[in-house]
Write a structure and sequence with these properties.
This protein is mainly alpha-helical and 142 residues long. Helix content is 54%, strand content 0%.
């Protein structure tokens, strides 16, 4: 229950101090291109403030570079498949192969940065796991 009447200046000041401060997100690394910096900004805006620590910033830079490289490799693979006459299957498959390698690197970096849903959810805390599932078990509400 609150006290009747006006709030004191000290109570107002304490309430202001208790308000959460907006944490500023780190700027993109200066070695990143404009396209990579846009990926940096989009990635950090999708995450809660403070999600990536200072030690994770180089990993985030690598993640942004790989995302842009994968886009370019995807464009090259598309061009090799549809726009080159005659069709050069070796070039097309080399683009696809390199795109697959970059996808593995991207998956590793995303997991290290805890960007994937699996990295933010514990199976034992999210309900029953499949290995514990017993269809014949009587439910507590039945």
């Amino acid at each position: 229950m609150t006290k009747p009447g006006r709030k004191s200046a000290a109570a107002i000041e304490i309430a202001l101090l208790r308000q959460p401060q907006a944490e500023q997100r780190p700027d993109a690394d200066y070695s990143l291109t404009d396209e990579e910096a846009a990926v940096w900004k989009a990635t950090l805006e999708a995450l809660p403030a403070g999600w990536v620590s200072a030690g994770g910033l180089p990993v985030l830079s690598a993640y942004c570079r790989v995302v842009v490289n994968m886009r370019r490799l995807g464009q090259l693979a598309h061009q090799a498949a549809h726009k080159t006459k005659p069709y050069d299957y070796q070039h097309h498959f080399s683009c696809i192969r390199e795109h697959g390698r970059q996808a593995q690197v991207l998956k590793t970096l995303a997991t290290a940065l805890r960007l994937t849903p699996q990295s933010t959810m514990r199976a034992d805390a999210s309900g029953r796991t499949l290995r514990d599932f017993d269809p014949d078990e009587v439910k507590p509400w039945e």
